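Now for a chain:

_____
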Amino acid sequence: MVQFLRFVTLGVLGLLLQIGAVSAQEGKVWTYNGPEGPEKWAELEAANAACAAGLEQSPIDLRPYYISSVEPLAFDWKAQPFPMVNNGRSVYAQVAKGSTMKLGSEEYALKQILFHVPAEHAVDGVRHSMEIQFVHTQGQKKLAMVSVFVRAGDRNEIFSQLMGHAPGKLGTQPLPNAVDPMTLLPKGRGVFRYRGSLTMPPCTENVDWVIFEQPIEAAQSDIDVFKLIFPMNARPLQPINRRFLLKGVY
């Protein structure tokens, strides 16, 4: 019982640190490959135990799924001149207060817009070029992630601006003008829904995932800008185990 309580305490503490700003992990030792890569995350710190022991880990291959009704989604994201931050493992846009999302009756605050190459989740075993993860929190204990896939195609003006100001090394670079994150959402309303985890240490579980089925398009040259900074920053796929993956229209 003491060990169980210690595990839960460490997991909650890890979540509090993570949702504080991703910066909580910036001083930690872990990578996406090599001796501190995903297979070793759980061994690096006791707080990372869920990375190996958890049964509801993310990302996953989005199959098999069940067609179902899903909770309604409502976005109220504000245009902002986001600071673009390079923390050594990814580039993310730091979001000021005021942008929210409703998942069913629950309201969450948008905190960060995080980028991964390739997409962390797969569709029938295939990963898209990139995945944009919109990190939302409710208080200090609840986390909801909204994900959008990116494929090469027509230029997306906002995505281009974000990549054009992505710092090539550790540090922060502000955007010169406000951009609307709503333009990073696809027109289609089909989504996958499942319960998972953070895709980086401490791999805390009980995270609600909403993943848009339809990808958005971006110029290959803009995707390549990110790949020059981070050629790969995606966690390997995790087993779905006994979870139910739902697919529906919000």
User: Anything to note?
Assistant: Confidence is low (pLDDT under 50) at residues 1-25. Residues 179 and 198 are 26 Å apart (CA to CA).
